[in-house]
Amino acid sequence: MDKKELRKKYKTLRQALSDKEIEDKSLAIANQLVRMNIWDKLYYHLFLTIEEQKEIDTEFILQVLAGKDKEIVISKCEFSNLSMIHYLLTDNTKIKKNSYNVPEPIDGLEVPDTKIDVVFVPLLAYDKAGNRVGYGKGFYDNFLSKCKPETIKIGLSFFAPEEIIYGISENDVKLDYCVTPTEVIKF
Prior knowledge:
By secondary structure, this protein is an alpha/beta fold. It has a single domain, classed as Rossmann fold (3-Layer(aba) Sandwich), CATH 3.40.50. The protein contains four helices and eleven strands. The chain has helices spanning 3-15, 19-34, 59-67, 139-146, and strands at 43-45, 71-78, 83-88, 95-97, 103-105, 118-121, 125-126, 132-133, 152-156, 177-179, 184-186. The strands form three sheets. The chain has a seven-stranded mixed β-sheet with strand order 3-2-1-6-9-10-11, sandwiched between helices. Strands 4-5 form a two-stranded antiparallel ribbon. The longest helix is centred in the first third of the chain and has 16 residues, at 19-34. The protein is globular and about 40 Å long.
């Protein structure tokens, strides 16, 4: 399938999930992450859940990161140039939903792309080669292309991979891993 078809398919699949299923699957994903060999880093970028899109509840991952005393980085979208500004999450960080219901920090201590060691990447679909489909604006591809080469890119999904995604462009940044409730897939 191509990206457009996959967006439609996986938005429909997510909408069919109950709140309990989302909670259980999100906790299972966090438990899979705990077993990974990624915890020797310092700066971890995490997306905040868009509840209306029935995304993975990243609160469990947030708790793991805080418990491991990691520096947690969250982002704000700049729609004028499809970029993201990253901020350190602190006790004083104020979060507000933007016009797309994306929870974002209002301001704070900025963190450059090149400082981030691990990125937990939101997605709608992914394939067995590590390609991903997001919402289609390119925010994450722009961001990931500016990270250092050794930055670990980990997709999070409730679902198994597609065989192949058609219509991948040279600007699409591949994942290193994808974590589901039942497995960790390495690309």
